[in-house]
Amino acid sequence: GDQRSTARLVGVGERPSKLAIADRSLAQAREMNHQLGISLGLFCRALVLTDLGRMAEATEHGDEALQILERLGDPEDELPTRILLARLALERGDHASALATLDVCVELAQRYDAEGFLPLAHAWRCCALVAADRAPEAREALELALTTPARPWPYQQTRLALSLSRAARLLGDRDIAIAQAERALEIAERCGFRYYVLLARIFLLRV
């Protein structure tokens, strides 16, 4: 399958199996010197490492994946990679880099968003704008994240709901934060995403 379908597959399992899938995919792609496959393996591994809190490794993998995709001229697959790198920039407190990256994501998504990443980009942009003390713009970004159509895939819906909950909590909008965390919890429980069940419950405790 392509990068996007494989990335969704990686989202189905729990973290140890996801890491094993990413490692196996990356090893096979490197053996064949398949550049798009290498970028896929790096991106999926970066996603798992981010969930594990191994942010420096995740950033290295994300940067390498993006360099490959830029060389290949593949803007559609750049989009989720850039969103992940923006999230990692936020985690390390680099708000300016996160915002610059997310501005590129929003622009890319106008033309290359077959997978429906635009609402996720808006949600993370809201978080970055809050961190930069730009609350009015952050509120606009949250509204865009809530109203932009998203894809129906459960894994992506869960990630989006958690991102929306986080953004709303940072803005002090408790009702939205609770509603989105509850939505993430419902999807995660129904689909067996145990890690995201845990995250959603933690989010509910925080609001």
Could you explain the architecture of this structure?
The chain has helices at 3-10, 15-32, 35-51, 55-72, 75-91, 95-112, 118-131, 135-147, 154-171, 174-191, 194-206. The protein is mostly helical. The longest helix is centred in the N-terminal third of the chain and has 18 residues, at 15-32. The radius of gyration is 16 Å and the shape is globular.
Descriptive keywords:
11 helices; 207 residues; 83% helix; mainly alpha; disordered N terminus
| Overall pLDDT | 91
In terms of quaternary structure, what is this? single chain
**Global outline:** globular
What's the alpha carbon Rg, rounded to whole Å?
Answer: 16 Å
> How does the major sheet shape up?
none
End-to-end C-alpha gap: 39 Å
Order of helices and strands: HHHHHHHHHHH
Model regions low in confidence, pLDDT < 50 over at least 5 residues: 1-14
